[in-house]
């Protein structure tokens, strides 16, 4: 019996010494959401012609006091510059920095945010962008007529009811880059007007790719800049926007009532935007009342979901159809068509 008692006592002592404490009492609390940052201005692929350049972005951090730095990789090497925090709020804020490149070429801009809690970073929250610096870009004279849009298959025609064009002898439009694939394009003048105002940009190889389809996210970003809307910092309810680069632009338009998602809760940011969708959005931006009556276009009847908006935009000379009398509402809009609709609709 004494042997059994000794063995039991030894087992109790062993368990008391070796059994670990609960995880709740010994481990440190889990870290907060790690800081991250994105660039909201300029956009990826922008061609920049004037220095200094203001680079702006958003950062996320639980305590809202992140330190943000911008790493710039270019022809002269890598430079890291501290950014100025311009606003803070629960969960993050805004930052900006003045960048004065001295050499033309391609640059990669990468924002990084850290705080005193942790120096770890989540790579997916640090989204670099690539821009092309082309200081002293050539000026493009103001066009004397505004072409009808979109007319990708024929020569554009003047619109007598549109805003009169400035005299050719008046002040030239703001400096805009030239693109290797725009010469003689039906939307050349309208595109250059927008690029000169920083509303839309081309690609690092010097092209604009006017006939490439434009996505719902890209159109949202361009329209936001044209309307001078700041990207929203809200989270939104779309199932496919949580980490998308255009989330702030999309939500800014949603909050204004200009754009919607789909019944399944998705926004489909990377899907090509349809010509009918652009007409519906621009009719809301311009507060146009849907038009009823006889159809203007052979393929848009009164039962089509965007019939009234397409008719309203056509009546306001914001959109037009094709020479055969059709509109192709379900076709994907191109970068040229989107640029022309925004330039015409907003008088840019």
Overview of this structure, please?
The protein has 348 residues and is of the alpha+beta class. The chain contains 8 helices and 9 strands. 24% of the residues lie in helices and 17% in strands. A hairpin with a 2-residue loop joins β6 and β7 (92-99). A 5-stranded mixed β-sheet has the order 2-9-8-4-5, with no helix packed on it. Strands 1-3-7-6 form a 4-stranded antiparallel β-sheet, with no helix packed on it. Mean pLDDT is 75; it is low at 12-34, 116-125 and 138-175. α3 packs across α8 (335-346) and α4 packs parallel to α8 (335-346). It folds into 2 domains: 36-133, Immunoglobulin-like; 188-346, no CATH class.
Strand order of the biggest β-sheet: 2-9-8-4-5
Distance between the termini: 99 Å
Largest sheet: 5 strands, mixed
> Can you write the helix and strand succession as a string?
HHEEEEEEEEEHHHHHH
> What sort of overall outline do the alpha carbons produce when their principal axes are compared?
globular
| Topology, number of strands | 9
Report helical residue fraction: 10-25%
- Mean pLDDT level: 75
Q: Class by helix and strand content?
A: alpha+beta
- Residues in β-strands, percent: 15-25%
Number of domains: 2
Residue windows where pLDDT falls under 50 for at least 5 positions: 12-34, 116-125, 138-175
Question: Given the structure, what is the number of helices?
Answer: 8
Radius of gyration: 27 Å
